[in-house]
Amino acid sequence: MSAALQVTAFGLTLLSTLFLILATCTDCWMVNADDSLEVSHKCRGLWRECVTNMQDGVRTCDQYDSILADHPVKIVVTRTLMITADLLAGLALATLVLGLDCITFLKEDPCVKLKMCYGAGVILCAGSILGLIGSVWYAVDVYMERAMLVSHNIFLGVNYDFGWSCWLGMAGSTGCFVASVLLTCCLY
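The line above is the sequence of Claudin; the predicted structure tokens follow.
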């Protein structure tokens, strides 16, 4: 039972870590259509902003200024939290690989292997919480930006939605949290 639980947690951790890394690297955190005719599709991300012409499929991207330049708080905080979550999830994944029963590393000391799995679960929990805070922070800020435009009657057909990168970050963080619960609570 323990080996099956470890392999399940490993698979979920691997998939969730890939989701977190993909969410951090891709640039579709906020989607908006510039007009009601939906001639163009704009994605804003953590690193750049891309516009896709819906008629001919041409995509142009504008890189943000230097990382050291002044950026909105939502971008800086989300970048920091997501990169930290990526690093913690990667560390937890490496620790979990070494702690699996099917790996011959430290085969003669199962107590240490169990502690490694438990430690991986704790590290994964911290990474998942940071990733979830970063993803939700960005989503709430997008919602507040849209609500402010509507309340000031500036809403001119611009539609703000959460992009697939934001959803991917939330899914990856949730998967990491579930894997950490499996490793910390169910493994003993």
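Note on the example: The chain has one domain: 3-35+72-186. Residues 3-35+72-186 form a domain with the Butyryl-CoA Dehydrogenase, subunit A; domain 3 fold (CATH 1.20.140.150).
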